[in-house]
Amino acid sequence: MTNIKTVSELAGVSVATVSRTFQFPEKVAPSTREKVLAAAERARYRPDGLARNFRTRRSNAIMVMVPNISNPFFSEVLRAMQETAFDRGYSVLLGDTQGDPERERTYLDFLGTRQADGVIQLGAHVPTTLPFPRTDDENVAAPFVHVCEAPTPSPFPSVRINNEAAAFAVTQHLIAMGRHRIAAVLGPKNSPLTADRLAGWKRALEELGAGSDDSLIYEGDFTLQAGQDAVARILAAAAHPDAIFFFNDEMAIGGLQGLKEAGIAVPDDMAVAGFDDIAFARFTEPALTTVRQPKKQIGEAAMTMLIDLIEDKNTPPQNTVLDASLVIRTSTGQAGKP
Amino acid sequence: MTNIKTVSELAGVSVATVSRTFQFPEKVAPSTREKVLAAAERARYRPDGLARNFRTRRSNAIMVMVPNISNPFFSEVLRAMQETAFDRGYSVLLGDTQGDPERERTYLDFLGTRQADGVIQLGAHVPTTLPFPRTDDENVAAPFVHVCEAPTPSPFPSVRINNEAAAFAVTQHLIAMGRHRIAAVLGPKNSPLTADRLAGWKRALEELGAGSDDSLIYEGDFTLQAGQDAVARILAAAAHPDAIFFFNDEMAIGGLQGLKEAGIAVPDDMAVAGFDDIAFARFTEPALTTVRQPKKQIGEAAMTMLIDLIEDKNTPPQNTVLDASLVIRTSTGQAGKP
DNA sequence: CTGTTAGCGCTTTCAG
DNA sequence: CTGAAAGCGCTAACAG
Question: By CA distance, what is B48's nearest residue in A?
Answer without folding.
Answer: A113
